[in-house]
Automatic annotation (TrEMBL):
This protein's name: Peptide deformylase
SUPFAM superfamilies: Peptide deformylase (SSF56420)
Keywords from the UniProt entry: Hydrolase, Iron, Metal-binding, Protein biosynthesis
InterPro entries per the UniProt record, alphabetical: Peptide_deformylase, Peptide_deformylase_sf
EC number per UniProt: 3.5.1.88
Function: Removes the formyl group from the N-terminal Met of newly synthesized proteins. Requires at least a dipeptide for an efficient rate of reaction. N-terminal L-methionine is a prerequisite for activity but the enzyme has broad specificity at other positions.
Manner of cofactor binding, per the entry note: Binds 1 Fe(2+) ion.
Length: 158
């Protein structure tokens, strides 16, 4: 496991739309290493989620860990349905250090993704988990939380 450097805004690589994670890369040593590196980077940075583009890998892959200390990798994640209800919550981002703001997101989402073996999974995420999935999937589309912030709770140094 190697902790990687997290790209920070305004690095243009954070605005690149990521490509689908290729089928032929599931089950490879390289994918296992990338997964370990992302988990280690997220832990070193004290994050609860990280997307591959944040370390310069433009593939649709995210890691999510919201307190159970069992980070999971999700490949080609898609939000397939969203709650009508939205909630406002404070967000930060490893790629925008020291900046926090209020963002409005869906209270719950249904996510379809592939696991590390390439098998499809569909599940419902609510509350903090839903927020993290929306935040990390935004990274895959070149979107940062600062693009959606309603108001800053710290002064941005952008």
């Amino acid at each position: 496991m190697t902790s990687k450097t997290v790209l920070t805004s305004p690095n243009a690589d954070l605005r690149v739309i990521s490509s689908d994670f290729p089928k032929e890369e599931f089950g490879t040593k390289e994918t296992a290493a990338l997964t370990r590196d992302l988990i280690e980077t997220m832990r070193v940075e004290n994050g609860i989620g990280i997307a591959a583009p944040q370390i310069g890998v433009h593939k649709r892959m995210i890691i999510v860990d919201v307190g159970n200390n069992k980070p999971q990798a999700f490949f080609n994640p898609k939000i397939t349905s969203k709650s009508f209800t939205k909630i406002e919550s404070e967000e930060g981002c490893l790629s925008v250090p020291g900046v926090f703001g209020i963002v409005k997101r869906h209270r719950s989402v249904t996510v379809t993704a592939q696991n590390i073996k390439g098998l499809n999974e569909t599940f419902r995420a609510e509350g903090l988990m839903a927020i993290v999935f929306q935040h990390e999937i935004d990274h895959l589309d070149g979107i940062l939380f600062i693009d959606k912030v309603l108001r800053y709770t710290t002064h941005p140094k952008l």
